[in-house]
Amino acid sequence: MTDPSVCSTAAEMVSLSRSWIAEGHTIAVVPTMGALHEGHVALILEAHQRADRVVVTVFVNPTQFDRPTDLDTYPRDLAADLATCAAEGVHAVFAPSVTEVYPEGAVTTVDPGPIAEHLEGEHRPGHFSGVATVVLRLFEIVSPQVAMFGEKDAQQLAVVRSVCEGNGVDIVGVTTVREPDGLARSSRNVHLDPASRQAATALPSALRSVSDAWASGQRAADELRTLGREIIERAGGEVDYLDLVDAATFQPSNPPQRGDLIVAAAWFGGVRLIDNLRLDP
Ligand code: PAF
Predict the structure, then answer these.
(1) How far, in Å, is the centroid of ligand 1 from the Cα of 230?
(2) 153: Cβ below 6 Å to ligand 1?
(3) Which domain holds residue 197?
(4) For ligand 1, atom 9, which residue shows the shortest CA distance?
(5) Are 124 and 112 a contacting pair, CB within 8 Å?
(6) Exposed site from 27, 80, 145, 156, fewest CB < 10 Å?
(7) Could you give the number of structural domains in the chain?
(8) Does one domain contain both 253 and 146?
């Protein structure tokens, strides 16, 4: 097990990337906000398949948080993250301060357009502009050929694909890692108390039931939405949205078709979780 190089300034990371590129290496980046879990490990494993140098970025990006308490309570543990990266053979960790990523007046803000206006975009104003801006900034610093993103954040993946089109970085989506009871792995799961943790399994169950109903021939989007919402609400969850959308554009899909996504966001005991499932039986 070799410790990764840790870069805390943009200049250090740029210089390391440049030296690797000059030596003929390829670079895969795994952008994260830290609090690494099995879902991130899956991204790192995929990154190793795609390039011979793997960089994990650990940066809790303030511009993508719409609620100050969410930013304040976001789990942070750099020592544990570095240990995970060492165990997974990561070559470098870029863990910058806010001013390294956003030097005064030097970063262009990105507006991802209509793809970012619905669902997460509607419930978290400014969120995707923050995500798109930081991802492009991290790419500028790390100079990767390829970047890994989890499919759990499906709209984020679609937004990143759309804003990165044509910039030479290959965007790879990696399958969601789930707990044995179906709950998607998320850094926010640590905030669930035992009762909410139990109730939260209604989120993947609702997605599965909607998918099963669709597979049995139900094509009315309204009926499918109601079915999913009721399962979450019966478990005590509060639904922000549950919808069926085109996987690339995130526009509502009616009637839903194979390949579309069932996407949902719901609150359990004060913790907001998101998840999705592809209609693809
Ligand atoms: O998915 C995340 O952890 C973040 O949104 C990302 C992509 C690292 C940007 O801050």
Answers:
(1) 30
(2) yes
(3) 187-275
(4) 131
(5) no
(6) 80
(7) 2
(8) no
Structural tokens at position 23: 């030596």
CA-only gyration radius of the chain, Å = 19
DSSP 33: -
Closest to 32 (Cα-Cα) out of 89, 124, 95: 95
Pair (158, 232) in one structural domain: no
In tens digits, what is the pLDDT along the chain, a chain of 281 residues?
A: 789 999 999 999 999 999 999 999 999 999 999 999 999 999 999 999 999 999 999 999 999 999 999 999 999 999 999 999 999 999 999 999 999 999 987 678 999 999 999 999 999 999 999 999 999 999 999 999 999 999 999 999 999 999 998 889 999 999 999 999 999 999 999 999 999 999 999 999 999 999 999 999 999 999 999 999 999 999 999 999 999 999 999 999 999 999 999 999 999 999 999 999 999 86
Does residue 137 lie in a domain region? yes
Take residue 32 and report the two structure tokens written for it: 């994260």
Tell me, using a 6 A CB cutoff, whether residue 63 lines ligand 1. no
| Average pLDDT, rounded, for the chain | 96
Q: Which letter does DSSP use for residue 183 in this model?
A: P
